[in-house]
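pipeline/complex-builder :: batch 7 item 3
reading input block
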Amino acid sequence: MTTDVQKLLKQLIAMPGLSGHEAPVRKAIHEAWVPLADEITVSRLGSLHALRRGNTQWGASGLRPSVLLSAHMDAIGMMVTGIVDGFLRFTSIGGLDPRVLPGQLVTVHGRSDLPGIIVQPPAQLLPAGSSEGAAPLTHLLIDTGLLPAEVSRKVQVGDVVSYAQAPIEMTGDLLVGHSVDNRASVAVVTHCLNLLQTRTHVWDVLAVASTQEEVTLGGAMTSAFGLNPTLSVVIDVTFASSPGSPAHKTFPLAKGPTLGWGPNVHPGLFKAFKELADRQEIPYSLEVMPRHSGTDAYAIQVVAAGIPTMVIGIPLRYMHTPVEMVAMKDILRAGRLLAEFIAGLPADFADSLAFDD
Amino acid sequence: MKEQKKSDTQTPRVGAEQIRLLEKLCNASGVSGDEGEVRKIVLSEVRPLADEVKVDALGNVLAVRHARAGSGPHLRVMLDAHMDEVGFMLVKDEGEGIFRFDSVGGVEVRYLVGKPVSIGKEHTPGVIGAKPIHLAEKNELKSSLSLDALRIDTGLTSKAKLGDRATFVTPFSRLGPSLRGKALDDRVGVATLIELLRNAPENVELLCAFAVQEEIGGRGARVAAYGFQPDLAIALDVTPARDLPAWDGSENTIYNTRLGAGPAIYAADGSTLADPRLLRYLVQVAESRSIPYQIRQPGSGGTDAGPIHLTRSGVPSISVSVPGRYIHTPVGIVRLEDWQNTLALVHAALVSLPADIFSVDR
């Protein structure tokens, strides 16, 4: 039994699951992973762990080696900071560009879920000089269309607010919506688990849908400690080339995933992935990450005594807007690359990992 | 002829059926100059209601319902609501589905970034993207993005082409006492005008113009008024409600109109000084019938009353608008009760319109 990856992704990007409040999306991923895993658990910080045991004969000595696949499931969003005349003031959870916000459809998770829109008051109602430049987050409001008394009954400070942009399927096998960062990578891991259903592999696979990446990387850090894997592969979105974005920091859409290279990546692991992609004729781009990779890999690499880590990127246009655009092709290719990697892992692979000194 | 006296004095209501019609109208695309989808809906609604219906040289739908009561001569009353909405046109194909675009009408540019759009007659989906925040310099985030910096992305293999119109796609919905949607300006007026035609007063010649090209200068209404030669005109539109709190808690003195305060009657805007006799009359009707109303804060902006009142040798005109928040953005909000009260006010004003209203000096 396998899971329809495109259908799953469309479902996942139609639901909330802000950093620290991942329950709705965790439930959906849980349902999708049940038929693909041997065991599913939830960490103390809310990350979802699915264990798929290695399925070849294994000697009595010691533990099976394991590879952790980490894809964060949390999304950026907002939190209510105040209520004024029935309008909500709010702050951000994760990195929001305030210029993207006016006119966005949102859901206010109050006593019940309320639809709302983010609005920018006219310049005359903002500090002098506001007709120039962008309004900061602190000057934007959410309008629920309800009367002030009803808003006060249903909403309080601290309630979270998520994007409500519905998914859009576009020509060229593209999917558009909010939270494609990083539910696209959850889809990658799901596709990998799909493919492993019919493959043999020595290693245990620990699929993790991690929490709080957009804020502290806390989910992946603690899950890696709890699961103590031999290796880890982090899958996250990266910047696809798009109008206005610098060419040297972006990668073509629909032309394959990226392979991360830099201090967060173990060079031996990088080499293994690169050679595998070449052998399998899976197109990819090289993504150089001179410092912090901006992914869970930064946290996982330094867990406990250290974990050899790899980063796979899925090119995404318009990251951190509600119209993030991804190519299904790239998701399927990355999933296949992971599955081929896992199926090809010899029992002693970790011992062979070396620095090219 | 007794049975003809029946229902024309009864106040028409905004019910589920009217909201469904507004939903259909709002979700249709109708950028100025390309109002076809809206025109189609309007024609199918008004054909059974009017005595004469035609589409004129610019694409206006002109529907006439003759007076039924008395021997006349009857006042020729023009009611106008515009079918078009603000939007875009694709103006340069940059390859791989990326297009430069220009605005049609006064779009709020700061509301464009990160929004989906619908392109052309096939409703091809597209998005107005933004550079990821991660790749933006700190000072970049403080400056707003101009139209010049934005692109519509139609995907890698779309059929979108140069010259196609694009519109917002926010789906219409009910939010408690409010209605949310794109193009409420002026589909609320269009829906109101259809209801007035459905409940046509019998004492006047009712001349309904469902006008094109309002958002680029009231061009449809001008020729509609020329053809109709009305004695008076009322433009039904949607006007901004800027009734939001000021950032520092100070009094909001530029609210223009307020949601929930009733129909906005115009004394003056940027293009029309309302005929004072019509202004006094509408206020008197509202007060005598206990219909809430507000006077729109005099100021800039304009409606189809602008071109209409200057047609031929002049037409006494006024505008009545439903207040709407965030119009000319992807998503506006109006209050249901304001729509109801606007319909009630205009209907009541027509039903009891004195034939000698212009016998006093302006």
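note: Residues 1-6 of chain B have pLDDT under 50 and may be disordered.
queue -> next item
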